[in-house]
UniProtKB/TrEMBL annotation:
Database matches in CDD domains: GT4_AviGT4-like (cd03802)
Lineage, highest ranks first: Bacteria, Bacillati, Bacillota, Bacilli, Bacillales
Keyword tRNA processing appears in the UniProt entry: no
Entry protein name: Glycosyltransferase involved in cell wall biosynthesis
Organism of derivation: Paenibacillus endophyticus
Pfam families: Glycos_transf_1 (PF00534)
Length: 341
């Protein structure tokens, strides 16, 4: 198949540090190409994914970006996978899905979410869901663990960093906090006063440093208190052979369904499980779990099945008077005028 992947213009594909959406685009693009499909990627300047062809956005204006995509869209495309939204909202006369990596979306024909919970609660059961996937081999595996706990994520209140600090204190464990500082007020009030030799903030991490922290931790604390759409850190930790504890919120119970001993009802429950680490699954079991359920191979399998289902099942309606067709007609007219001139 000839498949178009549409990324955002915020972070290159793949991202160097933070960027869950762009990492999904990267893994999916490379796995599709490995299987012999032709992939055209629209992404931010500096993207290096091994697509068949890559177009880098020339501006930050969404309207100009849409025109750019229309102008460079091959005529014989079989499917468009839009992780951004601007293409799906234009209703092109090509089977198109809008992959939402957060909450519900509207104004598109075929939304796809990253968990069943998001599809049900925010997508109103309209559309599909496909779980995120990662390339397991990209993650360092370490059987023998250090004694520290790890929090990895954005430093905002919804991610519950203050709860991770509370858990570390009440269990007497060392805690390493890593991630981008997105809320300075929250950091100064709830995190900074507790930093010392045993509770350390090491900043935003990526690449080898991130992998080493994940692989070396005795346990990762996923203390998110909101309806987490998926929780990529969950599977990144498990791929490193590291158990990860998460609250029964959002999609966390879905992701950890096969490892129920890692799901916590509250902070007290998480403290008890940190103290009783002998009940954690082994490092090898953690990694096998991700390979079986959340690898890039599994994710690509699911998306290819969805592409074929939509194409063969006539689930895509051709819209004659779409925003896409109107813009394309204008672009064609401008090109003809340029030639005449």
């Amino acid at each position: 198949m000839k498949i178009v992947q549409v990324s955002t213009n915020t972070i290159p594909v793949p991202p160097k540090d933070y960027g869950g959406t762009q990492r999904d685009v990267y893994y999916l693009t490379e796995e599709l190409v490995r299987r012999g499909h032709e992939v055209i990627l629209f992404a931010k300047e500096g993207s290096t994914a091994q697509a068949t062809q890559t177009f880098e956005y020339p501006s930050n204006n969404p309207k100009e970006q849409l025109d750019f995509i229309i102008k460079n869209m091959p005529e014989d495309v079989d499917f468009i996978h839009d992780h951004y939204g601007i293409v799906a909202q234009a209703n092109p006369p090509i089977p198109t899905i809008r992959n939402s990596h957060s909450k519900g979306v509207s104004g598109v024909q075929l939304p796809v979410y990253v968990s069943r919970m998001i599809l049900r609660k925010y997508g109103k059961r309209k559309g599909f869901y496909v779980y995120n996937g990662i390339r397991v081999e990209d993650y360092v595996f370490q059987k023998n663990k250090s004694k520290y706990l790890l929090f990895l994520g954005r430093l905002i209140e919804q991610k519950g960093v203050h709860l991770a600090i509370e858990i570390a204190k009440k269990t007497g464990k060392e805690l390493i906090i890593a991630g981008p500082l997105n809320d300075r007020k929250y950091f100064n009030a709830k995190i900074k006063p507790h930093l010392n030799k045993r509770i350390r903030y090491v900043g935003s991490v990526g690449g080898r440093k991130k992998q080493e922290l994940l692989a070396g931790a005795s346990c990762v604390l996923f203390t998110s208190t909101w309806d987490e759409p998926f929780g990529l850190v969950l599977i990144e930790a498990l791929a490193s052979g590291t158990p990860v504890l998460g609250f029964r919120k959002g999609a966390i119970p879905e992701v950890l369904k096969g490892l129920p001993q890692l799901i916590c009802d509250n902070t007290r429950d998480m403290i008890a499980k940190v103290k009783n680490a002998k009940r954690f699954p082994s490092p090898h079991r953690c990694r096998r779990y991700v390979r079986k359920r959340f690898s890039d191979v599994v994710m690509t399998d699911q998306f290819l099945k969805l592409y074929e289902k939509i194409i063969k099942g006539n689930k895509y309606k051709l819209i004659k008077n779409s925003k896409w067709n109107k813009r394309k007609a204008r672009i064609v007219k401008q090109n003809e005028e340029m030639k005449e001139w």
